[in-house]
Every structure is written in C-alpha cells, then in structure tokens.
C-alpha cells in the first residue's frame, strides 16, 4: 500500500474548508514584460551567507534544530534520508515544492524542519523560499522581520542577493515572501518567476531549493508553481482534511512529479520498555 493510500485511510473526517477549483484563466495568467531579474553576482556571495552567525531561534516547534534525539527530530532525519534517496539519480532533482490540501496541516513547519534537517548535513546547502504570498509564516517561525523578499524581487526588480537572509543554521539560507499581494497567482505564474526558479536550481548544483506554498484546494498558487519544480511533497495532517479533500487535491496535482506524502501529527502509540510514545 502506498503512502498516499495510507494517508487516505488514516485521514479522519473532521472539519472541512470552503474549496475553490481554479479556472483555466487563473492557472494561465501571464505577467506583462518587465526588465530581467538581477541575480547574485558571484558564488562567493552565497558562500558569505553561510558564514553568518546563527540567528536566535526560540521555537519548540522547530524540532530539527540542535542535536536532540527526540522522536519528532528522528522522524525528520528519516524524511531527510528519503528525500535524498528520491532526488539523487542520473539528475539531481533539487527543487521541491511543499503543500497540503487545506489550511492548518503543518506544511510550513514541515518545509522549515525538513530544510533545517537537510542543511545540517555535510553534502548540501539549502535555500528555503516562502512562496505563500497570501499568508507567509516562515519568517515568524524564524523570529525575523525582513524588509524585502520574493515579492520585491519579482515585482520591483530587487536583486535576489539583497533579499537572502543569513540564518547560520547549518547551510540554510532563507528567501522570505516579503509581505503579501492581492494577486499572487500573477506573480507566481509570470516569466519572471520561472526565471527565478531556473536560476535558483542551476546556480549551485548541490543546493536544495524548497518552496513553501499555500494549500491546494483554496488557491491556485501551488498548481501554477508545481510544473516548474522537480518534485512535490504533499502534507496530510491526521484529523484535519477529509478523505475526499485529499483525493481532490491530489487530482489537482495530477501530472506533477509527486514524490510522496508526509503524514503529519500522527498519534501512533508504540510501547517502548515501560512507557509509550507517539509520533
């Protein structure tokens, strides 16, 4: 039985959300021609970011931080190993999109913890991009208040090098959303965004680029961005989406390179010696 099938069986029929099936016009929006994007000037620019002192993070939800051996952190280590195995082959599939069916499934926490887990390894640098231009949250999880981000790079031609944030967490660099916009699909489906994805993918051959997007059913954002990346990771939170919502979201993503499903916040009790734990 596949991970997706297991997720469908485990997903409880709890609360639902009002869904929206994107129209073809929403998916095919193209932006007006604008000047070319200015990218980071040299490889040394990115290397300098990795030398930054670690930012002070006091968030217990970032379980991949530190060297603790908690059950949750070990699960992210396992996820890291699976991602490395799935993305390495004849060609390195280094651009990943993370989304979910509906809100409050933990997709952003999953994206950030996975990015941290990958960045703590020896072999890869990691760039985490907040492409949730409706309700960005990654900067809050990191305790940051960035002044510029992806929006300014796409809309105002700000160089990417000016928007990258030094985290000091392993080899992790962060590109924040830079605020919110009223029509994010126009930016994410633009030629400018395609250029950004291509540049981020190809500038450094051993770098993972992880895009956190809004959920699939309420919005078209993930649907328009998914074809530009190498793989999609789908988050399902136990007890949050209904089975038919998961099925509809997966149908929406049909044709994209789905790597697998992360079953999040699963209460699977296992006896270990004289106590129980859940994962």
Protein architecture, described:
The chain is α/β, with parallel strands linked by helices and 279 residues long. The protein has a single domain, classed as P-loop containing nucleotide triphosphate hydrolases (Rossmann fold), CATH 3.40.50.300. Helix content is 33%, strand content 16%. The protein is built from eleven helices and nine strands. The strands form two sheets. Strands 3-4-2-5-1-6-7 form a seven-stranded mixed beta sheet, sandwiched between helices. A two-stranded antiparallel sheet has the order 8-9. Helix 4 crosses helix 5. The N terminus and C terminus are likely disordered.
Strand order of the largest sheet: 3-4-2-5-1-6-7
- Level-1 CATH class name: Alpha Beta
Task: Give the full name of the CATH homologous superfamily.
Answer: P-loop containing nucleotide triphosphate hydrolases
Structural class: alpha/beta
Quaternary status: single chain
The Rg value, from CA coordinates, equals 18 Å
The name of the CATH topology is Rossmann fold
Brief account:
The protein is α/β, with parallel strands linked by helices.
Topology diagram in text:
Layout: H1 3-10, H2 24-27, H3 43-50, H4 71-87, E1 95-100, H5 107-119, E2 125-130, H6 138-141, H7 150-155, E3 165-166, E4 172-175, H8 184-188, H9 191-202, E5 207-212, H10 221-225, E6 231-237, H11 243-252, E7 258-264, E8 270-272, E9 275-277
Helix pairs in contact: 4-5
Main features:
Rossmann fold; two-stranded antiparallel sheet; disordered N terminus; disordered C terminus; globular; 9 strands; seven-stranded mixed beta sheet; alpha/beta; 279 residues
